[in-house]
Each structure stands twice: as C-alpha cells, then as structure tokens.
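JOB MANIFEST
job_type = single_chain_structure
chain_count = 1
residues = 486
[input]
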Amino acid sequence: MTLQIFNTLGHHKQNFKPLQDKKVKMYVCGPTVYDLLHVGNFRGAIFFNLVRNWLEYLGYRVTFVYNYTDIDDKIINRAREEGVPALELSRRYIAEFEKDFASLKLKAHEHNPKCSDHMSDMIKLIGDLIKKGHAYAVDGSVFYAIDSFKNYGRLSGKNIDELQAGHRVDPDPRKRNALDFVLWKPSKEGEPAWDSPWGAGRPGWHIECSAMNRCIHGDQVDIHGGGLDLIFPHHENEIAQSEGATGKPLANFWMHNNFIKMGDEKMSKSLGNVVRGRDFIEKYHPEILKFMILSVHYRSFLNLAQEQVYQAIAALARIYAALLSADEILAEKVKGAAKDNAFAGELAKADKEIEKALNDDFNTPAMFAAIFDVVRNFNAGYKSGQKVSPDLSAKAKMFKGWLVDQGKLLALFQEPPAALLKALDDILIKEYNIDAQEVEGLINERNVARAAKDFQKADQIREQLNGMNILIHDGINQTTWEVKKG
C-alpha cells in the first residue's frame, strides 16, 4: 500500500511522492524559546519523530529540519523582565528544551537552525521579494504586499476580502493594505539589532522560517509540518514569501497536528490550564506522554486529563508486563530449537495491519490495536511460574523482538520492563496516597493468617487491599503486590 498523507493544502489524502527519488526533505516549525515548553509543543516533536521513522522504514533518506525561533517579541519582553540579553535568554531555553527532548529519547534532527544564525539569508530573501514587487520598504520597515500574491489564503481557506472586512485593529498608515505583514522592522532601544539595507533592525517572525528552510533545503520541501495554530497566519505567510521569491510550490505536503485539551477545555494560556512538558514528564514519565500523544490520531484533539493518564498507565502496564514475562521465559535457558509457526503467522498479520495503518495518514490508534492483539495472544499462552518449553521460549523471543522493533518506530517500549513497571506503581502510589508500609503490614498479616489456615481472615485482608487499589499475587515463595491499573 502506498503511503497516503492528509494534505492541509487541499484538505484531502494524497499518495506520497517525494521531489527526489528515495529522498525526503522535512521542515517542522520548532519552538519560540523564551520559557520551558508546554506539552502542546511536544506533540509535534513526538509525532513528527514517528513520521520520520516511518519514512526511513519505507526506505527514504530523510533530512529533518526543526528550527528554534530565538528572535521574537516574547523573548525580548522576557529578557527585559529578567535583565539579560535576549539571545542569552533564548540560548538558555534552547538548552532546557534539549534536556527535555533527550529525556523523550527521540531521534536527533539533522538540523536545528536558529534565526540569529541566518540573518544574512533573511536579508537576502527580503531583498529578492522587494526586487520582484512582493515587498516594499517604508521608514526602515519592510512589508509584504499580499495583493501581489494571487494565491494568498489557499492553505488556510481564508478570503482576503473577508479578512479585510473583519480587520478591527487600526492599520499602520504606512501599509498599502491593512493585511500586509512585516518582514523587517527597526529595533527599539535595547533590542537586538542587525544592519540591513533598510537600517538597523530585526526580522519579522514569518520570514525567519522561509529563510532557514530555503538555506538548508533549497526552494522546495516534501513535507512542511507544525501545529494547527500555525496554518494562519504563519504558514500562509511562509507560502507567500517563499513562493513569491522562487515561483515554485514551497511544500508538496502540509501536515498539522491538532490541539491538546485538559478535560473539556482546550489548553490555552488565557484559561490558565497550560501544562509544561517538563512538569508532566517529572510528575509522570516520558513514556506516558509519548504513549498518550501517539495513541490518538494526530489530527484529533488529545485529552491529557487525569482519567486519560490513568488509562495510559494501564495500557503501558499491560505491554511492559508482557515484556517482563518474555524476559522471565528467556531467562530459563531451555535446550532444543523450536518455532511457533502459528504465532509467527500472527506477527506477520500484525505487521501488515501496522503497515496499512501507518500508510493511511499515520493511523496510530489502529497500530496500537494491532500491538495489543499481539500482546493478548502472547499472554494467552503463558502463566507466571509455568514450565518453560522450547516452544514457549521461541515464542517469547519472537514476541520481544517484534514488540521492541515496533516500539522503535514510536520511540516506545525500550525501557527495562521491571524498572518501568515499578515507576508506574510509584506514580499511582503517590496519586492514590497509598501508604506502602501499611500495605506491607497487611500482606504480612495475611501471610500469618494463611499459615494458620485462617482463610476467612486472609480473604478479608485481600478485600481490604483491593479497596485500597492494591492487587496481590501469591507466588511459590512470596507474595508480591502492585497498584491496580485501569
């Protein structure tokens, strides 16, 4: 099956075909670095990591550019509040983002350009636009003339006449059209400034991505991505700038991930419900954030409410418990070669389902459904403590190898199973305010009752623990416990 991608430009799925055979150029708009990033920023980082991994699985050589906006009003304002140079502030938060990115164990991008390193590219691009009649300079500022670009609004579906009718802000009298946007502006006192043909100043936001993209990738890219909020005006303006300068389509495919909800409300600063990525990762676990983001289709709303967190914990526990079982089986060094042909057939079937799912506009929910079918199949053939046969050992080896390989596409399921399961229990112990010492005490009391054949009391304690969200497992030599999940 051919890879199909939903193209925001045209609003339908299209067969993917790169500009050059077996080579893919990707550009995804990265963060504006003036603070620790919120979880919404990480949705794009995590999802487009999967896009890149799947393209490489299909045999493409991918060049992935993910930029940092380190020149922006928000950065300047924050730097002024803290009394530090703007570029120093942005460097600090780039380093903080890269710490969080590393904790997610995502694949490094080929390029992470910063706006401040591409000033000459921006100035040249602005000059080209002026020469071609798409931009004009006034009093040290340069504006893009949207009337000069006939396809303006094609990506977002915005109509210029309707935009003008709804324009409530008093227009800059220097603009030819109230909707013209800034490419270059004079810097105010104390702000970063660079020399240009139009005077000392700094670039507008939109020109930054056009220039960095063009410098690294050339005139065209295969995939341009970002969050849904970037469609207008940022990506619309990128198209106007880049295509105005080159006369070529900027990107064959435009991909946009949806927003994040916290319960019933969209996460936004105005509602005060913004969650920083680092806070979420430290409270829960990077694996939980990645699982939650990828278990929902990228074009759908993602809900990060507590109920969904608990569901993710339960799902991860099922997968990692199966991996732990596989490790227990493989620890038994049984003799004799064997192969479970029926299970091999199940894995081959799951491979086809996953390939179909990811080729259908990265349908990750369908991919996870196939993974859980395999987990159920594996669990059905094994109970903890049973004698390990060569057939079971072969099945465990196939299962673990297959699941780890699938997980590499998702940047999931690579953690040591026992450590991850303990981390999930530790999270729920805190969430449910469970007293671990009390649990251990009750288990000891139950063991004494069982030894005395007081099974009524032993059952009562089991029920008491169950009411505390504790599940107990009686082994041959000891009783273990875990927090109830799901």
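[summary]
DSSP finds 16 helices and 15 strands in the chain.
Residues 166 and 388 are 72 Å apart (CA to CA).
exit_status = 0
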